[in-house]
Design goal:
alpha+beta, globular
Length: 175
């Protein structure tokens, strides 16, 4: 597979439908992305409507990776943080369609998010991932450092508690 095309996403019916399906699939397969299974379409749609609206306001960026015209992965870069944190951004809602995992797409998305953070003058990225079934190996492979684990942080999509691992990464500004 050639490197995916990565672009900022805006709120169109097709984009929202693809993101909605990806979120529902991720939750159904145990992905800890703030929702419980079964996730209703209207709840997934409301989440993406608000997220893409926040992106239109410049509060975040929702990036998508494409296979042809199909959105196959996404990551959100949260830019609107408290006034004492203008130097950092947060990585959230990293998801890849089950059919496209283990192909380097998530790594490409993280690189794009890091470059975008850099373009916004950020020097620190943070994220968290579930202790059970999270993407720790991915984040560590691209240079994120583990700060620690908070036990019993959230419910897993199918029930039961899981801890969360907190990661950070310093990024250098381009000359």
């Amino acid at each position: 597979m050639s490197p995916p095309r990565i672009a900022a996403l805006s709120d169109t019916p097709a984009i929202r439908a693809a993101l909605r399906a990806m979120l529902i699939e991720t939750v159904a397969h145990g992905g800890s992305v703030s929702f419980m299974h079964p996730l209703r379409e209207e709840d997934a749609d409301a989440f993406w409507r608000e997220s893409l609206s926040a992106a239109a306001r410049g509060e975040r960026a929702v990036l998508g990776a494409f296979d042809g015209e199909d959105v196959i992965a996404t990551v959100t870069l949260q830019l609107k943080l408290p006034p004492n944190q203008p130097h950092r951004a947060e990585i959230a809602k990293m998801m890849t369609r089950i059919s496209h995992r283990k192909r380097g797409i998530a790594t490409a998305l993280l690189t794009a998010a890091e470059n975008l953070a850099r373009a916004h003058g950020r020097t620190m990225l943070v994220l968290d991932t579930a202790e059970d079934g999270g993407a720790s190996q991915l984040y560590e492979s691209v240079g994120f450092q583990l700060s620690g684990t908070i036990p019993d942080y959230a419910l897993k999509p199918h029930g039961g508690l899981t801890g969360t691992k907190i990661y950070w990464k310093r990024i250098e500004q381009a000359d």
